Amino acid sequence: MIFIDIKYIHEISPHLDKFHKVRDYLYNLRCPYCGDSEKFKNKARGYFYRVKDQMNFRCHNCDYGTTAGNVVKYINPEIYKEYVKESFFPTEKEIEYKFEEPKFKKRDPKLKDLVSINKLNADHPAYQVLVTRQIPKEHYDKFYLCHKFYAWSEISSNKDHPRLVIPFYDEDGKIFAAQGRAFGNEQPKYLTVKFDDKPKIFGLDRVDFSKRVYVVEGPIDSLFLNNCLAVAGADFNNLQKEDTTIILDNEPRNKEIVRRMENLIDIDYELVIWPDSIQQKDINDMTLAGIEGIQTIIDNNTFSGLQAKMRLATWKRI
Question: Contacts from 135-143 at CB under 8 Å and sequence distance 24+?
Answer without folding.
Answer: 135/220, 135/223, 136/42, 136/44, 136/223, 136/224, 137/28, 137/44, 137/45, 137/60, 138/20, 138/22, 138/28, 139/223, 141/116, 141/117, 142/166, 142/167, 142/223, 143/116, 143/117
